[in-house]
Amino acid sequence: MKSWFRRATRQSTPRLPGVNTPTTRVDVAELAPDTGAYLGQLAYAQLAFYQFVTETARRTEPLLDTQIISSAAARALRIHQDICAEITSRGDDPVEQMAPFVARTDAFLDILRGSRGIEGVLTAYIVFGFLNDVFVAVAEGMGTAPGRRYAAAITSNRDDGELADVLIRRIDAEERRAHILALWGRRVLGDTILFAHAIVRDPGDVAGERVEPVFTEIIARHSRRMDVLGLTA
């Protein structure tokens, strides 16, 4: 097997802080959508995450792992509820704000549903770790009190280590699948980056040249999350 399929040296389980690179925050803020669109995307992403992870939990054994995965789903639901409350406080309807993002988000997650429960857990770990980093960066880049609340709603209700613990146990029990999961993870990351571009894409930035630099730190954080699993990113 070629070297890029090897398992990396496993790092400790992450409890990563919020995105805090000033350059990244400023650049993302310049390219961010208006607040209403941001909140609509964020609210529906968390609802979709809740649904996706709940489905994954149903296909997962043993019971301990099902319980942990369900806890991750509950965290996403809390974020969704907090953001819906923020939308309502602005005088907007959460359903109307989310509606433009339903079809695209659902289509994105549909193509990432793996054939095995472990692939679904890895997808959730990658997709929502990455997207939450993007959403936090945009919120912090707003430089406003509401922006700080939006970021806090995400960071106070996320724990990447929960899903990492499940994945580590499953990989240790089935090491022969590590290289397959590494490949799956790369596919998931590529699709997730494309999806995330729409959150911050400048309509005039056809080639994506202004968007690419803002993902540098976020991709680095993804690599650290994969290091925790002992998988190459």
TrEMBL record:
Name of one Pfam family that matches: MiaE_2
Location of the region described as Disordered in the Swiss-Prot/TrEMBL record: 1-21
Polar residues composition bias: residue spans: 10-21
Domain of life, source organism: Bacteria
Domain Ferritin-like: 38-202
InterPro entries tied to this protein: Ferritin-like (IPR012347), Ferritin_actino (IPR059125)
Full protein name: Ferritin-like domain-containing protein
Phylogenetic classification of the source organism: Bacteria, Bacillati, Actinomycetota, Actinomycetes, Micrococcales
